[in-house]
Specification:
By secondary structure, the chain is an all-alpha fold. Helices cover about 80% and strands about 0% of the residues. It contains three helices and no strands. It is elongated, with a radius of gyration of 18 Å. The two termini are about 15 Å apart.
């Protein structure tokens, strides 16, 4: 299935970039910090709480910007190529 999709879409790397920006960046960088705050419940006076909040905000913004950039590149590639272009 993946091979057919990769052959069908010459802009498969842009598609993977969208999936990475939507799924993997929050999963790896944001959710663990949210779980840390939920499970250990640090007070707002602790430096760890503010470091985690700062990292959550930073990586959420990076994820959103990465998603927008990937969608932009995907649209550019869709206009440039067509299905099965490199077969």
């Amino acid at each position: 299935m993946a091979t057919l999709l990769a052959a069908m879409l010459p802009f498969f790397s842009s598609f993977n970039a969208i999936l990475g920006a939507i799924g993997y960046t929050p999963l790896v960088f944001v959710i663990p910090m949210i779980f840390y705050i939920i499970i250990l419940k640090p007070t707002r006076h602790m430096i760890t709480f503010w470091i985690n909040v700062t990292l959550i905000i930073t990586f959420s913004i990076i994820s959103i910007l990465g998603c927008l950039s990937s969608i932009h590149q995907f649209i550019i590639d869709m206009q440039k190529y067509h299905l099965f272009a490199n077969i």
